[in-house]
Design brief:
single chain; alpha/beta; Leucine Aminopeptidase, subunit E, domain 1; Aminopeptidase; 2 domains; 9-stranded mixed β-sheet; 6-stranded mixed β-sheet; 20 strands; about 20% strand; elongated
């Protein structure tokens, strides 16, 4: 991994490359950092701005190779974010992502990054450290490949030093860097697991990776329950989904005890369908290969537990991951079948492709035995959420305003955004069944909402939130691959809830 360190602004030392973040109005009001860099380059930056060779537009880059009279430079535009809002955060992240992607292409081994700022509070420096390091880790990530011959991309970058805008901000800047490095370990795990093909990342493989983390971190305890145990728990909904697959279902429980205080844990529940054909209600085959990503909720929960352990977070968290395949075998559950969930509620399975809520309802009920102060489930649950929100934000549903607000704020801080959607009894009415306590679908309208309302039936009065990440968990097309979301959001939230 690249060594990332915060340093104080002195006379800029020569490294292979200087990366300078430039706002589009910087020539009119120079910060001490910008003035220092411009002086060290004999007024080159001001000249480039004056002549229009570089404008400072958000995300713009300009590479200037090293010559006799100049240090090698990479100028990156910041634009002119005017207020502390989502647009302000967006352009800062765009600048960081542009900088890190571009600097890796220069083959530099040592890089100094200057981010001019007039803000002198530690919070600003901490946030700056987080977003730069997060952008670097994203740029460095490589999708696991089985191509022959394997030719992994290599980076020459060994050291990145980030200059604090003010000398007394070095500690806060480094804290932000360290936080993102710890979180990035969990994001990488979540991406790696979700990117693996379904014939490798089976329920058993997912369980073994959770056990591996327990061997790596003493603060994590992992317990894996097999089919026989799941039957003892009377998880009829979970078992109904699993019964059509040759792969054995697993119920994975991870406990992270990072707090010395006897405080009730927060429960995370992750949907772990390692491949989803839709079952008897077979999916359109055109993009069915992407259904290996249907365990992205489980991957993000496992990655979050790793990040908490890496950061030594002062919080207690329990993760429950029900994992199986949804296959159209001769033994598979059929539309119209009625099963009984662990809670005792009967469910008419009207669509076997609405399987995620079936494994999650049993896992939510199971998680209550840990007496959590809050429960958050994460799932690639509905195509309806993709239609409603696309990929920029995850759908957030909750029975508790305080919990919802805290998660939304964590999304803004981390750049891993969510958007709150409604739940209500008027939607739950759509789940009525003539043959069971409720059906597993509610019709064409409000599909993401009725799916959330189905889960709501199994949480009782525990503060609960549901994150539908069907749009945000992976990208398609030329960029096909997992995003690792919402690990950043969850880690941000959980580290403040110790």
């Amino acid at each position: 991994m690249v060594d990332v360190k915060a340093i104080a602004l002195k006379k800029p030392a020569a490294t292979d490359l200087w990366v300078v973040i430039i706002g589009d109005g910087i020539s009119k009001k120079w910060s001490p950092m910008a003035r220092s860099v411009d002086t060290a380059t004999n007024g080159l930056i001001k000249a480039l701005l004056r002549d229009g060779d570089f404008t400072g537009k958000a995300g713009e880059t300009l590479f200037i190779p090293k010559s006799v009279n100049t240090q090698a430079l990479l100028l990156v535009g910041l634009g002119s974010p005017s207020s502390k809002n989502l647009e302000h955060n967006r352009v800062h992240r765009l600048a960081a992502q542009s900088a890190c992607s571009a600097l890796l292409k220069t083959r530099a081994q040592s890089v100094t990054l200057f981010w001019p700022s007039d803000e002198q509070d530690d919070r600003s420096a901490y946030t700056q450290g987080r977003l730069i390091t997060d952008a670097l880790c994203r740029a460095l990530y490589q999708v696991p490949t089985r191509k022959t011959p394997a030719k992994p991309k290599t980076t020459t970058l060994k050291r990145l030093q980030v200059v604090a805008a003010h000398a007394d901000q070095v500690k806060a800047l480094q804290a932000g860097i360290d936080f993102s490095l710890g979180t990035a370990a969990g994001v990488k795990t979540a991406k790696d697991l979700a990117n693996l093909p379904g014939n490798i990342c089976t329920p058993s493989y997912l369980a073994s990776e959770a056990q591996k983390l327990a061997r790596q971190y003493r603060t994590i305890k992992t317990t894996v329950y097999d089919r026989r145990a799941i039957e003892r728990f009377k998880m009829g909904a979970f078992l109904a989904v699993a019964q059509g697959s040759a792969q054995e279902p697993k119920l994975v429980v991870m406990e992270y005890n990072g707090s010395k205080r006897a405080k009730a844990p927060i429960a995370l529940i992750g949907k772990g369908i390692t491949f989803d054909t839709g079952g008897i209600s077979l999916k359109d085959p055109a993009a069915m290969d992407e259904m290996k990503f249907d365990m992205a909720g489980a991957a993000s929960v496992i990655g979050t537990m790793q990040a908490l352990a890496a950061l030594k977070a002062d919080v207690n968290v329990v993760a429950v991951v029900p994992t199986c395949e949804n296959m159209p075998d001769g033994r598979a559950v059929k539309p119209g079948d009625v099963v009984t969930a662990m809670s005792g509620l009967s469910i008419e399975i009207l669509n076997t492709d609405a399987e995620g809520r079936l494994i999650l309802c049993d896992a939510l009920h199971f998680a209550k035995r840990f007496k959590p102060r809050a429960m958050i489930d994460v799932a690639t649950l509905t195509g309806a959420c993709v239609v409603a929100l696309g990929s920029p934000v995850s759908g957030l549903f909750s029975n508790n305003d305080d919990l919802a607000d805290e998660l939304l704020e964590a999304g803004v801080r981390s750049g891993d955004l969510a958007w709150r959607m409604p739940i209500g009894e008027e939607y739950t009415e759509m789940l009525k069944s003539n043959f069971a306590d409720l059906g597993n679908i509610g019709g064409r309208e409000a599909g993401a909402v009725t799916a959330a309302c189905f889960l709501w039936k199994f949480v009782d009065d525990v503060p609960w939130a549901h994150l539908d990440i069907a749009g945000s968990a992976w990208l398609g097309g030329a960029q096909k691959g997992a995003t690792g979301r919402p690990v950043n959001l969850l880690v941000d939230y959980l580290t403040l809830k110790g």
